[in-house]
Structures are given as structure tokens and as C-alpha cells.
Amino acid sequence: MGINRRDFLKIAGISTLAGIGGAAGLTLAKSGLLEASQYIDDPKGLKGKRWAIAIDISKFKTPEDYKRVMDVCHSIHNVPEIGNTKEEIKWIWTESYESTFASQEYANPYIKDNLKKKPFIVMCNHCDNPPCVRVCPTQATYKRKSDGIVMMDMHRCIGCRFCMAGCPYGARSFNWRDPRPFIKKSNPEFPMRMKGVVEKCTLCYERLAIGLKPACVEASSGGMIFGDLNDPNSDVRRVLSSHYSIRRKPELGTSPCVFYILGGQ
Amino acid sequence: MLETAFKGSRTYWAWILFLLTVIAIGLFFYLRQFTVGLGVTGMSRDVSWGFYISQFTFLVGIAASGVMVVLPYYLHNYKAFGKITILGEFLAIPAVIMCMLFIFVDLGQPLRVLNVILHPSINSVMFYDMIVLSGYLLLNILVGWTALSSERKGVAPPKWLKFFVILSIIWAPSIHTVTAFLYSGLPGKYFWMSALLAAQFLTSAFASGPALLILLALIVRKFTKFDPGKEAIQALSKIVTYFLLTSVFFLGLKLFTSFYSQIPSYAHSIVYLYAGLDGYNKLVPLMWISNILIVIALVLLVIPQLRKNEALLAIASVCVFIGLWIDKGFGLIVGGFVPNSFKQITEYWPTLPETSITLGVWAIGFLILTILYKVAVSVREEVGDIDFHH
Lengths: 265, 390
Description:
The complex is a heterodimer of chains A (about 260) and B (about 400). With about 260 residues, chain A is of the alpha+beta class. Chain A has ten helices and ten strands. Chain A has helices at about 5-15, 20-30, 65-75, 95-100, 115, 130-135, 160-165, 205-210, 215-220, 235-240; strands spanning about 50-55, 90-95, 120-125, 140-145, 150, 175, 200, 225-230, 245, 260. With about 400 residues, chain B is an all-alpha fold. Helices cover about 70% and strands about 0% of the residues of chain B. Chain B is built from 14 helices and no strands. Chain B has helices spanning about 10-35, 50-65, 65-75, 85-105, 115-120, 125-155, 160-185, 195-225, 230-260, 265-275, 285-300, 305-310, 310-335, 350-385. The longest helix of chain B has about 30 residues, at about 350-385. The two termini of chain B are about 15 Å apart. The model of chain B has no long low-confidence stretch (mean pLDDT about 95). Chains A and B meet through helix 2, helix 4, helix 6, helix 7 and strand 6 of A and helix 5 and helix 6 of B.
């Protein structure tokens, strides 16, 4: 990379003073240098063309199994606990079978009782064809070319919430007020957000960059399988080829990259 | 010409003062929203657009409806609209400005609004909406102001104006079509995802806009020496009638598809709005008031003897305007979010700050409208009741 974020900001600041900020911004955006977080090129970093997660729901047995996964994500990413459902911010959480697979509900009401009553983990699906990216007027949310992660640039987001209307999975949260007072213990390694921007799971891009799997996957003790869909030998491809799995609302053509294995072994 | 807006009667100034007060209250609450965040509104994670975006949607229609007087006058040389055309053009200007303000007050990070231009996304319908709305605003300012200036000088408007008039006629439907595309292309939002949505938007706009214009024409006649003409008002009433009928017809088409198919996702929002879903029914009374108003309006409008009575026509116009406002300026946007992606229900109701900000923006619109109409009427009073040839 010829330019890092700090340098870019300097140039942008100076050129704005010169009155050509817009033009400079456009040029940089076109050459693809604006993808945040890519300035570190750690050799240990995980490389993949199309990251995906398979959730083996049979591995989630106790409430503790779910809690571990959700807590680790929310604590390392400074996700606030607002305390009311209207303004709630969540990156990974649980929903009932009916809610998770809202369209399958009509297909099979006679599914096994233990599945029907089980909580399902939901999160951003990192769609291959993400509607949120399509509708965003500022490219503040974008699909990373290198590995397909649906990213968020919280510094560019204008808070129009078009992406929230566009996401058919309810994966996006909006900061209805300043989140900082609602973060119990903050992680200085990860940016905090301000009021008025949308946020969601970014598949732990910051961990992948230094060779770690997403935190939820790591905390799931095998309940969540992570890997590259483009690599036939990846863990995720292996588990998807040997187990029957479903995705949320596949009929919408978004190609979600989060898979659910219902049957277990 | 603008100087005429500074000379007015006691009533005129009282009205201006009233609007300024409403604007000040709105501004006060906007500053609060600016500091605290959009948490001061009734919107939520589930119903993430509310009053502001609803008003925006409704007002795009009002703006587009100016074409209903401009088109017959310029393309069909319908002389009766000669006097009222300027009222149509001058209605479109504040309507578009209100649209832009409603988008602005809805933004979580309003200071970053220029990102839409700095980092444009040609896949986003919002990008095109920005282009068509600002274009339409400029066209109406240009056409309205130039035509009125020529009229004041007693000369024919410049020839080049015709080009922009025709452009504005083609442009008008585009603003509402693009606005419908904001909603009708979203996967999973079944209430909006219909090819009919843009057509529904246009027909309801061409009913509510001219209804407002009838009321404005009646008000102008009552308070000034300028008479837009009985024939023009009657012609407008026919436009309202036909488009209201088409609107109701389109609603019927939507109801048929949604309920005969019995695909639950297509019916949920409609059931929520008109009957309540799973015990949630906050919007039901409002939606039925809308239905009743539209039925009253239809009776008053469809029977020619009733519609020819201007007092009854005024009542019908109020019914159309409020009825369609509830439908589009409230139910349409909120209904699309209920139930949410998980088939759960969060209800929405605007808060006091949100309502005050909304009223403030409306007051800004009415202030601009008042000033523009004052200028237009003053010019008319000045040049007298001559033949209008712009």
C-alpha cells in the first residue's frame, strides 16, 4: 500500500483547505485505497476469498454455550448495553427457530420439538450479494473485495438508515444516542462509535488481520465453523459437504454466508 | 419582486409571526435532537424510519403534483389554468425544500450529509433521488420566477423558457417514481415490494396535491383581490376525483394480490394497519379515519352537483388531503417495518420532540409558500386582471 489511513487523512485535510477535498477523496476512492484496516499487512493474517461461518446448532447445549459466544463479541467490540429493546445494539444474539427462519415457518411446523424450542444464533450474514451495500448512498458499508466481508466505515456513515431498511435479516443497529456511557468496560484496541451511525458485525476483520479466527468462532468450542468458501479443503466447506445445512431467507437472492446445520452429527 | 413580500396586512404579519413561532419551537427541539441523538424520536431498531421519512414521501408527491396544472396549460393550452399555473409551480418549490429538510433532520450525522456527493454510490437510489429533487427544485424556481417577472413587465416570457417548462413536466413524475424505488426494491419488505408502488405514489399525489391547490386557491381568493377562477377550481376538482378513484382502484389491486394469494408476508403489514396484528393495533384508528375521509371525499367529488358547490368541494379537498396524508405520510412507511425481519412487532408513535420538529419543517414550507404566493398575488394585483400569456 502506498498510503495509510493517517497519511490519507492528512492529505484530505490539507486538500480540503485548498478546496479540492472532494476531488481528492474521489480519486482515492476510485483507486481502492480507502478500504480501512488494510494498511497492516501482517504475514500471519488469515487469507481467504469468501469467508463464511457454519453454525452447528447441536453443539449449543446450555445457555452458557450461547452466552459465551455473544459476550465475547460484545465485549471486545465495545457494543453498548442500552437497556431497552427499542434502542438496542447487538451484533450477535439469539432468536427462536420461527423468528430465525421466518419463511421456513410456513413450510414445516412439525419439525422436531427440540429444534423448535432451541435458540438460534443470528448475526450479519455477510451476504455475497448484500442489499445493504447496494442501498448505502455513501459506500459507508461495502463488501471488501479481498475476502467478501461486509464492512462498515463508521466515520463515513451519515446515519440515513437505508441499510437497516435494506437488510432482510435485521442485522443492523443504529446508535440512537451516544453509546459510550453504556459500555461497562471498554476495549481500547477497538474503536468506539458515536451517536447517529449504524453498526453491525464485521466478522472480526481486526482479528483475521493478525491471524486469529472470529471471536465468536473461537469461543464456540466447535459450535461455529469458520473458513473460506472458495477453498474446497477448508473446515467450513468440509462441514457443509458432509451435513445438511440451511440459510436464512435464501429466496431473496442475497446469498448469505452464514449456514445453519440443524441435524448435528 | 421579493419586496412585495414585505408589505402586508395585519393578518398577513400575524400569520408570518405564527409560522415563525412554530419554526422556533421546531428548531429548539432540533437542537436537542442534534445534541442527544435520534433517540429523542419514537423510532427504534425495528421501525427505523418514522415521521420524517413519511413526510418526505408525502411531500415529494405534493411537489410532483404541480405538473397537473402546468401540463394542461402549457401542452394543451388550457387557458383556465393560466392564472393558477404559478400557484402550482410555487407550491412545488416549498414542497421540495421540505422534502430535503425532512431527509436532513432524519440523518444521524447531519454534518456528514455532503458524503452523498463526496462518496457517491451509483447503486443507491438515494443518489438519484438527490439529483431529481434538486433538479426539480431548480426547474420550478427558474420557470415560476421567470414567468412571473415577464408578467409583471407585461411582456411575453422568453422563448427559451418553453424548453424548461417541458423539461419540468417530464421531470415531475420522475421525482415520485425514484422516491417509490427507495422502498419498492428492498428485499424482504413485502409491503413495499410491489411494481405498483410508484404508480400508487403518483396517483395519490395527483389527488392530494391538486386538493391542496384547490384549498390554496380558495384561500387566495378570500384574502386577496386575485381570483384564480371558478373554472380552474372546477377543473382541478375533476383531476382530484379521477386520481382519487384511481388511487382507490390501485389499493384494491394490492389488496387482491396480497390476500387472494394468501402469502402471509404480503398480508402482514396490511392486517397490522387496518385490523391490528397479534394484539398490536396502534395505527388502526388512524387508518380507519383515513378510509372514512376518503369515502366522504369520494361521495362529495363523484356527484357533480356536490362538487360544483365550492363549500362542499372545500370539505372534500380537506378530506382528500388528510385522508391521503394519513395513508402515505404515516401508515405507508411505518407499516412497511411491521412486523420486523423476525416477524416480531415493535410499534411506533412519534414523540413530542419529533412532532415539533416535523411541524417546524412544515412551518418553514408554509412560510416559503406564503412569501412566494404573496409575491405572485401582488404582481397579479399590480398588473390587474389581464390576459395571462406566460
